[in-house]
Amino acid sequence: MTVTTPAVRADAVGKVFPTKTGEVTALTDVQLDVAPGEFVSLIGPSGCGKSTLLRLIADLDAPTSGTLEIFGKPAAKARHDQDYGIAFQQAGLLPWRTVGENIGLPLEIHGKDKRQRADRVAELAELVGLTDFVDSHPDQLSGGMQQRVAIARSLAEQPRLLLMDEPFGALDEMTREYLQSELTRIAAETHAAVVFVTHSIPEAVFLSDRVVVMSPRPGRITEIVDVGLPDERDEQLREAPEYYDGVTAVREALHGTTTARPNER
Amino acid sequence: MRGAKGLGWGILGVLSLILLWEGYKLVGPAEGVVVGDDGSAGSGTILLPRTHERAMPHVWDMAARLFESTSGGDSPPLIVSVANAALLTLGIAALGLVIGVTVGMALGLVMQRWRLAEWGLLPWIIVSQTVPLIAFAPVINSIGNQIDRGGTPWPQWLSVAVIASYLAFFPVAVGALRGLESPDRIHLDLMKSYAAGYRTTLLKLRLPASVPHLLPALRLGAANAVLGVVVAEVSIGMRGGLGRMLIQLAGQASGDPAAPWGPIFGSVVLGLIAAGSIAVLGVGLKKYRRGEASA
Amino acid sequence: MSAPAVARTLPSWARWVAPIGTGVIGLALWVLYVDVLQAAPLMLPSPIAIGEELVLRWDIIWEDMLITASNALIGLAAGSLIAVMFAAIAATFRPVDGMLAPIVAALAVIPIVAITPILNTMFGASSQFGRQAVAGLTAFIPVFVNVLRGLHQTTPVHRDLFRSIGATGEQTFRKLTFPTALPYLTTGLRIASSLAVISALVAEYCGGPADGIGTAIASYAKSGHAALAWAYVVGGILIGLAFFLVTAALEWWATRRAPA
């Protein structure tokens, strides 16, 4: 046991889904600790259970075996205490609400008064660079801007843990790289631990302290790669040799697990 | 802009209908086109309608008739009588719509909340619409009369409103169920991640998301309520409304062929008012309809 | 790969048992209210009495059912045919679309049955034509709306594909436009079938020949023959169900074989 409680501690976590044709093991024997403030990516081919693991951490589904603790509490308690913020591949903004109202949604649901809400929304809008758009509606924004709103919303309750399920998966490469840089800045500013699901190797390496490599049938962790890049991540890093070393390391770890069907999606 | 253009097309469409009517009246045979006629009266199958004045009055006669006295003597102009009758019909239809929307929303909420309730009720709700349960109208009226004689006051218009509500509830129930279930998985996950309960999810997510589904349902419900009232008035013989007036004037049509067109125009206007008021409601709820396909 | 919704797991047989259970409970309550408690108003007879009347008078009920059903069927067939023609014209010529759209929208919200008495004078009171015309007019609307939507439903990628392989207009219609629109047609038919039955029946309230289910219900209800009136209602329900089941089966068949 370390002195600080880990942000996420998964101990022998497994998940089995019942289906018409029998049971499907989505995850088996997952062992993972995420330290406070640490950035961890989950990477692997489709069906490796990375999204399932994220949903278990978020208590959107319950594990069928093992224990899962968020900041030392059961996942359900952590959800009720709003210890984490979450963002998905789709921004998932409510179309009838303005950008500001979308960012403030969690605050509104948890009964924060109007003044507090307005202040926090202004702060968050500035953090993601959308101050001029608080009164716009989601359908007036580009995909990248919508995703920034979703990130601001996930930060509304000042969570110590951020869960992100391929948040940049649907964006073009330029926007993607821009938002990656933004995210590292935001994560550093907020000191939040991040669990980030992706299937882009460069993205995982650029963002993470550690990359968790997973493989399917049954979904499991096969290797954890320590990226070992400096805390400061900027555009120069994308051309640095140690970055390529990281990419190579993750790629080799991945290919060791997916030789059977390399290009499967 | 789009509205004005639509209106222009609509006027053009109505004009072509009038042209068709008058054109056929001009060239069509007085006794219509009948096939299989063996010479005796009323035999054969009539294919095209009769064109003489009693069957097809001129459009301008219909219009002029609106401003003549309803039934001779001191009676007010037809248009005033029609307006009065339409007002009564509209009032009952509104009551029927309110009852129908209340029942429909309640059913929608219950079916959304409990899957078992959906399975148990939805097939019956759908079947109830595929069968002509408006056939119940005379029966419901008789039951109402009996309750009234039993001491509990049950005016006839209440029976009419109940029948109208029966026609109005269905689209609302189905629309509400569909609307309440329309939020994406991701939105539901989001609400769950906020530890939001059923009530909060309903108010912040399900109800606003159901608006685009509810509006067409309400428009259909309102139109059905008007239809239900007109039909119920006819079938149970309630006085004062448009339905009864229509039957009465149609009965005298051989002497006064343009007169029944008054209440027909009245019911057309009524249907448009019912649908129009829902459209106005839709404008009020504009912000919940973002992303809705502009059809 | 997303997880199935496991929050509300019910055994699959509940799908069938639940509606049947609802029906049985409803019927039981009805019998309890009418036969056991004897509390019901006279016009609400017991389902048993209704069943007896239905069996006893099946011959005359069947005759009236045939009249109403054939009116509905003729209306449905004619209305749908005209609707498909109009939809095809509207899909090809935009001005026609613009002219028809507001009229159809208005038709959809006005009580069409109201014109039955007029039609009866136009075609003669002994003719069933008024009823058939009303059924046809009501059936027209959903078929027109759905077919028109279906004809607009081909995706750009499919159209581009057909252009790129040099398909003629007729080939494109036969192999692309028609198959795409077919499920929409059957959906429109399913909706129209119920409406046609209801309006054919309701039109009978507005005069015309003294036969048909609607006429019988109205006259027996007025004269206090409650069970017989209800037996006729059951006859109407049977017509409606028959129309619904046939068109729903048609729709099921068309959507199953539709291109995804």
Brief write-up:
Chain A has about 260 residues and is α/β, with parallel strands linked by helices. Chain A has helices at about 50-55, 75-80, 100-105, 105-110, 115-125, 145-155, 175-190, 200-205, 240-260; strands spanning about 10-20, 20-35, 40-45, 65-70, 75, 85, 160-165, 195-200, 210-215, 220-225. Chain B has a two-stranded antiparallel ribbon.
What does this structure look like?
The complex is a heterotrimer of chains A (265), B (295) and C (260). With 265 residues, chain A is of the alpha/beta class. Chain A contains nine helices and ten strands. Chain A has helices spanning 50-57, 75-80, 99-103, 105-109, 114-127, 143-154, 173-190, 201-207, 241-258, and strands spanning 8-19, 22-34, 39-43, 65-70, 73-74, 84-87, 161-165, 193-198, 210-215, 220-226. By secondary structure, chain B is mainly α. In chain B, 69% of the residues lie in helices and 2% in strands. The two termini of chain B are 15 Å apart. The longest helix of chain C is centred in the first third of the chain and has 35 residues, at 58-92. The model of chain C is unreliable at 1-7 (pLDDT under 50). Classes of the chains: A alpha/beta (265), B mainly alpha (295), C mainly alpha (260). At the B-C interface, helix 1, helix 4, helix 5, helix 8 and helix 9 of B face helix 1, helix 4, helix 5, helix 8 and helix 9 of C.
Task: Indicate the proportion of strand residues of chain B.
Answer: under 5%
CATH homologous superfamily heading of the largest domain in chain A: P-loop containing nucleotide triphosphate hydrolases
Ranges of chain A where pLDDT stays below 50 over 5 or more residues in a row are 258-265
Basic shape of chain B:
globular
Strand content of chain A: 15-25%
Q: SS-based structural class of chain A?
A: alpha/beta
Mean pLDDT of chain A: 87
Largest sheet of chain A: 6 strands, mixed
CATH fold name of the domain at 86-287 in chain B: MetI-like fold
Q: Quote the distance from N terminus to C terminus of chain B.
A: 15 Å
Beta strands of chain B, count: 2
For the biggest sheet of chain B, the summary is: 2 strands, antiparallel
Q: Output the number of helix runs of chain B.
A: 10
**Nearest-angstrom radius of gyration of chain A?**
18 Å
| Element order of chain B: H for helix, E for strand | HEEHHHHHHHHH
Could you give the topology of this structure?
The complex is a heterotrimer of chains A (about 260), B (about 300) and C (about 260).
Chain A: E1 8-19, E2 22-34, E3 39-43, H1 50-57, E4 65-70, E5 73-74, H2 75-80, E6 84-87, H3 99-103, H4 105-109, H5 114-127, H6 143-154, E7 161-165, H7 173-190, E8 193-198, H8 201-207, E9 210-215, E10 220-226, H9 241-258
Parallel strand pairs in A: 3-8, 3-9, 6-7, 7-8
Antiparallel strand pairs in A: 1-2, 1-4, 4-5, 9-10
Helix pairs in contact in A: 8-9
Chain B: H1 2-27, E1 33-35, E2 45-48, H2 59-65, H3 78-113, H4 115-130, H5 137-149, H6 156-180, H7 185-193, H8 198-236, H9 242-251, H10 261-284
Antiparallel strand pairs in B: 1-2
Chain C: H1 14-36, H2 47-56, H3 58-92, H4 94-109, H5 116-123, H6 129-151, H7 156-164, H8 169-203, H9 213-222, H10 226-256
